[in-house]
Sequence to fold (140 residues):
Amino acid sequence: MKLKTCSICNKETYLWKSNPKTCKICYNAIRAKDNTNQSNLPSKPKSVLKRIKSVSDKRLVKLAEYRVARDLYLRNHPVCEFYTCDCREVELHHGKGKIGELLTNPKYFKALCREHHIFVELKPIEAKELGLSFNRLDIP
Fold:
């Protein structure tokens, strides 16, 4: 093989077999530059692409109702409802879950401090015996 002059860097070197006018270094630089200009986005224009909402409009309305119900309940029950606790830093426990109408039904709300909220979540049988949790399948 003979040494030839690269058409890009003008160095006398062995030319690259895939492009006989350039050396290996210039050939790889051109390929790297071409790859960075290609995007991985879909070929559709941005105006056609629709972003999926993280929360549906219906759920946003329910969450707004929930915030009002939660704040009202915690305002009316500022102390932990666990029978031996008088802590004033409380959070809301959903005794029957957050599905459907249960999300905003204050009948199943309980104001609990963090320690007792964890207790209720980790020990559901004891929580049901104390009246802090309810079986979701029971008819109200």
In short: The helical segments are 24-37, 57-76, 114-122, 124-129. Residues 4-37 form one domain.
